[in-house]
Amino acid sequence: MTTESAPVPRATQATAVRRAASAIRPPRSGDDGTPVPRDAGEASRRLAPAALLASDVLALGLAAALAAPGGWPAAVLLAQAAAQVLLHAHRGLYRTGLSPSVLAELPALAGLAVAQWYIVAEVVSACTPHHSAGWAALACAAGIQIAVSCGARAAVHRSVLWSAARHPRSTLVIGDGPLADAVTAVLQEHGRYGMRPVGRVAGTGKDTEATAGAGSGEAPPLPVLASVQDAGRAVVQNSVRHAVFTVPPESAPDGEELFALFTRHGCEVWLISDHGSVVRSRTTPRPDHIWGFAVHSLHSGRAGRPARLVKRAMDAVLASAALLTALPVMAACALAVRVCDGPGVIFRQERIGESGRPFVLLKFRTLRPADENESATRWNVSSDGRMSRAGRLLRRTSLDELPQLWNVVRGDMSLVGPRPERPYFVQQFSRKHPGYRARHRMPVGITGLAQVNGLRGDTSIEDRARFDNRYIETWSLWQDMCVLARTAGSVFRLGGS
After folding, report:
1. Which domain holds residue 191?
2. Which CATH number do you get for residue 238?
3. Residues 73 and 202 in one domain
């Protein structure tokens, strides 16, 4: 059983009070756990980060063409553009948010533009003094870049807001009381935030009749869902893409189960903070806002799309380079396996990847299993007497994992992420260990934070899940580089299993 086919978490014993029944339709067979279809306006939102990146590159190109000193090598400008993209991604300048504003981005854009032009000029001056630039030229280049970037970004933001208002996405509001009423009313009245409430998730059925309305009395009442199971059906049937908590998930009845449900279906999860009450461990440092309400994006464990694109690009480049570099080593490994263990050098096995999707993982064969059942259900083979000396060496050095570089190039895996497991064990561990299923919120990896902390082979699954979820919730490109460096060190220490 994969995470896509997993049942909706247990429901509470409360009875839901339904209103506006046309909004929440009866469940269709086979809907539990299936991905939610994309709405008509999501294409524009998904293209927004790419449009912002293009705006920044255009601004830099115009600044270089109009004001940069002549004779600067093209490689310098390309390096400057790459550094700009990375810095802007690090500062979150490719996240549009609910209320994107150029004025809010201006300090970061201006500071980074001035800093990068000054640093590049200093580097060029040190390497080729005859290409040094004066302060006036640098100031002019930075000014042109800032002006063009702000103008282009303003157009992108306006397009995003227009698309959000034209194609709002279905939204569930979680919570009871006046705050939930007010938030529901605001979302119904102000369409530019791109959220269309289709239901309210009440905690335990208490006072559900009173909270079924929209708060203002003018908008039509919403159905009240008093169980996690009803919420799961609503997510699928209404293609829900946003979930807005008016209380922290750990403080709401069944809040943790609801949070896991929304995360599994790929919803964007938000928390409205009342009087500064925020769950710091799960929120972004800078809140957005909805009509005066501070709203924090809860870490669903999915990196933003720009960051995911950067991670994927890094994976593709590094994995391709590593694959080419390691070809002689892989050829030697393949020869050793062929000589010691006979034909069948590559071992293929089904594993579970991001969002519960199965894929075929590649390894050098270190042991020939008795049958498919043993391959799918036997946990650890490190002490198996059938393993040859070549197989033991490959496992101790982790060289048997090298073919997985091809899985990374193909996009099945990432270089860094939670280690993928077989479907049988995913089913078992998901039932026994809280948080194990949440490991599939990001692409699986060749190595991960759990592995570099010694959690390999026959070690605690609960500890692995804890480290994997911590990695997901604190993900950054720098953390990936640190994990890769520590992995290289463990290989030289023969830290395989």
Report:
1. 167-297
2. 3.40.50.720
3. no
d(CA 146, CA 379): 57
- pTM beyond 0.70: the answer is no
- Mean pLDDT to the nearest integer, 319-329: 93
Residues 285 and 336 in one domain: no
**Looking at the structure, do residues 247 and 392 belong to the same domain, yes or no?**
no
Question: pLDDT digit string (tens) for 405-428?
Answer: 999 999 999 999 999 999 988 888
Q: Do 313 and 443 lie in a common domain?
A: yes
Both 318 and 463 in one domain: the answer is yes
Q: What is the pLDDT of residue 252?
A: 75
Asked if the structure places residue 257 within a domain, the reply is: yes
**Domain end among 133, 164, 195:** 164
Q: What pLDDT shows up at residue 302?
A: 52
- HEC profile of the chain: CCHHHCCCCCCCCCCCCCCCCCCCCCCCCCCCCCCCCCCCCHHHHHHHHHHHHHHHHHHHHHHHHHCCCCCCCHHHHHHHHHHHHHHHHHCCCCCCCCCCCHHHHHHHHHHHHHHHHHHHHHHHHHHCHHHCCCHHHHHHHHHHHHHHHHHHHHHHHHHHHHHHHHCCEEEEEECCHHHHHHHHHHHHHCHHHCEEEEEEECCCCCCCCCCCCCCCCCCCCCCEECCHHHHHHHHHHCCCCEEEECCCHHHCCCHHHHHHHHHHCCCEEEEEECCCCCCCCCECCCCEEECCEEEEEECCCCCCHHHHHHHHHHHHHHHHHHHHHCHHHHHHHHHHHHHHHCCCCEEEEEEECHHHCEEEEEEECCCCCCCHHHHHHCCCCCCCCCCCHHHHHHHHHCHHHCCHHHHHHHCCCEEECCCCECHHHHHHHHHHCCCCHHHHHCCCEEECHHHHCCCCCCCCHHHHHHHHHHHHHCCCHHHHHHHHHHHHHHHHCCCCC
Whether 121 is in a domain gets the answer yes
Q: Domain total for the chain? A: 3
Q: Which two tokens stand for residue 415?
A: 């270089």
